[in-house]
Structures are given as C-alpha cells and as structure tokens.
Amino acid sequence: MVIKNVSLDIVCGVTSTLPKTELPHIAFAGKSNVGKSSLINALMNRKSLARTSASPGKTQTINFYNVNDALYLVDLPGYGYAKVAQAVKEQWGKLIERYLQNTGELRAVFLLIDIRHDPSANDKTMYDWIVHNGYEPIIIATKVDKLKRSQVPKHVKALKEGLALRPGTAVIPFSAETKQGREEIWELAESLLFE
Ligand code: GDP
C-alpha cells in the first residue's frame, strides 16, 4: 500500500451511534499497551497520528483513520487496563461488541498480542468474541524486536496454544521499531479488502 494521505476522520465514543461509512474497514483490537497505536502509526507511515500511551487505558473511543480515501483503519479501544472501573470496562466491551455486530463494511480483524507474554484471559475472550461474530482474526505478535530471533518460533507456538487458535490462523510477528511484518500485514489486509 502506497500511503498518499491519512486523517483521523471519526471518533466514536461509548454512547455515540456508530458512524455510517462507505469505505471498507480493517479493525485492530488488543490489550492496552500492546503496541496498537504504534502499529497503526507504522502502517500509515506516521510517527504519532494514533496516540501512543502516555495514559494507557484512557482511550474509550473507536477511532477511524481514513487511508487514501480507500479504507478505514479502525482503532478499537484497548482492553484489560487494571486501573479502570468495572463499569467502564463493561462500556468498552459493549462498544466493541456493537461495532463487531453491526459493521457490514468490516473486512478483517487483527488481534494484537505481545509476543513475550502468554495470552491473558481478556485476550482469549476477545479472540473468541471475534470468532463468535463470524470473523477470522489475524494475530499480530507485537514487539518482536524484544526477543532474540531464535526465541520467536517458541513464542509463536505458545501464543497459538494459549489462544487455542483455529488451524490455519495467520500469526504475523511485528515490530514498530524495525517495521518487521509491516508489508505482510498490508498485503493480507489488501487481499481481504478487495477480494
Ligand atoms: P497501545 O496502548 O496498544 O496503543 O500501545 P502503544 O503503541 O502506545 O505502545 C505501548 C508501549 O510499547 C510504548 O512505550 C511503545 O513505545 C512500546 N512499543 C510499541 N510497539 C513496540 C515495538 O514493536 N517494539 C518495542 N520495543 N516497543 C514497542
């Protein structure tokens, strides 16, 4: 994907109506601090259009980034931030659920998991939720630069087992530092957008 122009077009809060859009969507889900903003910035070739967490867990919105007037990269609110009240967590859950259930334009859902850690209960719930809503999530294993290259296969295997991924589910190691995986993610996204 050659990035010509990007802009944050829509911000949708927990009580807002979901926007009506014409363009196809590619959505990104993941735990707070997993590296979602960094990934979205890397995909858009921007340093800081998507927030990187000064205050993790504060993002209670779905942000729609318009890329080339061709598609939206959709930043779903990060989950699992411990210091947030239960009532607020439930609101986020409902917002994500509403989005997954009511977005006909959604072409692909990427779920981000930190490659260094076993998936959490929240990660598993999110994975199951995406599957339950009829999507086949693609897993992005973030921060791969933090591992030695030789350790990567072992961690990918643990991640597959931890999430009980369905056979054939793609797992793409990614680093916002080195941009490893960026092209692969775009290729996959484009193949799903225009299939
Ligand atoms: P978000 O809360 O999921 O949006 O996470 P951020 O993108 O804000 O990243 C959280 C923290 O992890 C920040 O300090 C980032 O600099 C760091 N980070 C994100 N991606 C990477 C990566 O690929 N490699 C390394 N080493 N650090 C990363």
UniProtKB/TrEMBL annotation:
Signal peptide: none annotated. It comes from the Bacteria. NCBIfam families: GTPase_YsxC. Keywords: Cell cycle, Cell division, GTP-binding, Magnesium, Metal-binding, Nucleotide-binding, Septation. Necessary for normal cell division and for the maintenance of normal septation. Its cofactor is Mg(2+). InterPro entries: G_ENGB_dom (IPR030393), GTP-bd (IPR006073), GTP-bd_ribosome_bio_YsxC (IPR019987), P-loop_NTPase (IPR027417). It comes from Blautia producta. Belongs to the TRAFAC class TrmE-Era-EngA-EngB-Septin-like GTPase superfamily. EngB GTPase family. This is Probable GTP-binding protein EngB. Residues 22-195 form the EngB-type G domain.
